[in-house]
Specification:
The chain has 11 helices and 14 strands. The chain is an alpha/beta fold and 337 residues long. It folds into 2 domains: 211 residues, Rossmann fold; 97 residues, UDP-galactose 4-epimerase, domain 1 (Alpha-Beta Complex). It has a 7-stranded parallel β-sheet, with helices on both faces. A 3-stranded mixed β-sheet has the order 12-9-14. The two termini are 38 Å apart. The structure holds uridine-diphosphate-N-acetylglucosamine. Uridine-diphosphate-N-acetylglucosamine binds next to helix 7 and strand 8.
Length: 337
């Protein structure tokens, strides 16, 4: 079966391509290489022994999208990762985010709507919950007003999919990711942040390797046990596997609703200081850091209830924070060697 993976050379996309190929799917990747590199294909081949089809394309090019679906009429499922994801950039350039994350979604759904049946997996985010009222966060928690255009594109994306699936033959699963981290255990693929990383783990590994002087910990006066923010860090390979399970669920018509929503997390919250301590343990390095003021827009705590994903989807994260950080560190060492 042929699956289209948009953004398939990105961090989560590339790991998902590996797991799809491991499960016997034929994969076609569309990627515009805006935040990835064609070399990632070599990493995928090194792990799976198989080269996916790759088309360099920008999904904002509507005629190109139409042409793609004509040429690949046998695509039986779409996993849609391609999107911009930097919160700060989205505040500075909202229209880029609406064009890149929303227009592209519309163009793909327009194509899928013409098919007798279609299966669509969407990358959503725990950012839709904002500062949730209770922990762990269940899928029925209310969606809070977005604090950034990036977050808003995830909310609007979910709404568009809900409305379109109601009146079409498209079935969809929305996957709300908590904090994806790590790299493939083989160190053939991993995260490749452009410029100074905004996310915690790549900043930590780059500091560990000596590329950054020290980590700034954004605030230690939050109402948490050690005063730093709490997140649910999930290993990217676990996350990738969830996409395969979700697609198989749709293909086997096991979905109970036209649009289903699942949290993808580990169910365990870790504070920034706990992450630093765990990194120091796995790397054997002392991490230089200083406590600075809070970062605007940060929420205090977010970790997933995994009950629905465990029981309904039949998927559970396997890796611990320690394992995920071990792989992230192995990857950082490999790319700098
Ligand atoms: C961030 C985005 C979120 C997006 C996700 C994508 C913000 C406010 N949120 O989530 O919308 O979906 O990335 O991956 O940008 N931290 C430090 N020092 C650093 C970096 C981070 O102390 O140099 C802390 C943060 O305050 C936070 C935790 O580490 O408590 C995790 O931060 P990060 O990796 O940026 O993820 P989120 O903020 O959860």
């Amino acid at each position: 079966m042929k699956v289209l993976v948009t953004g398939g050379l990105g961090f989560i996309g590339s790991h998902t391509v590996v797991e799809l190929q491991n499960e016997g799917f034929e994969v076609v990747i569309i990627d515009n290489l805006s935040n990835s590199s064609e070399n990632v294909l070599d990493g995928i081949v090194a792990i799976t022994g198989k080269k996916p089809i790759f088309e360099k394309m920008d999904l904002r090019d509507k005629p190109a999208v139409e042409d793609f679906f004509k040429r690949h009429a046998d695509v039986s499922g779409v996993i849609h990762f391609a999107a911009s994801k930097a919160v700060g950039e989205s505040v500075e350039n909202p229209l880029l985010y609406y064009e890149n994350n929303i227009n592209t979604l519309v163009y793909i759904l327009q194509q899928l709507q013409q098919k007798p049946e279609a299966h669509f997996i969407f990358s959503s985010s725990c950012t839709v919950y904002g500062e949730a009222d209770k922990m762990p966060i269940t899928e029925d928690a209310s969606v809070k007003p977005a604090v950034s255009p990036y977050g808003n594109t995830k909310q609007i994306g979910e709404e568009i999919i809900n409305e379109v699936c109601k009146v079409s033959n498209i079935n969809s699963i929305l996957l709300r990711y908590f904090n994806p981290i790590g790299a493939h255990p083989t160190a053939h693929i991993g995260e490749l942040p452009i410029g100074v990383p905004q996310n915690l783990i790549p900043f930590i590994t780059q500091t560990g390797i000596g590329l950054r002087e020290q980590l700034s910990v954004y605030g230690d006066d939050y109402p948490t046990p050690d005063g730093t923010c709490i997140r649910d860090y999930i290993h990217v390979v676990d996350l990738a596997k969830a996409h395969v399970v979700a697609l198989q669920r749709l293909l086997a018509k096991k979905n109970l609703e036209k649009v289903e929503v699942f949290n993808l997390g580990t169910g365990t919250g870790s504070s920034v200081l706990e992450v630093i301590n765990t990194f120091e343990k796995v790397s054997g390095k002392k991490l230089p850091y200083k406590i600075v003021g809070r970062r605007e827009g940060d929420i205090i705590s977010a970790y997933a209830s995994t009950d629905k994903a465990n029981e309904v989807l039949g998927w559970k994260a396997q890796s611990t924070l320690e394992e995920a950080l071990t792989y992230a560190w192995k990857w950082e060492q490999k790319i700098r060697s």
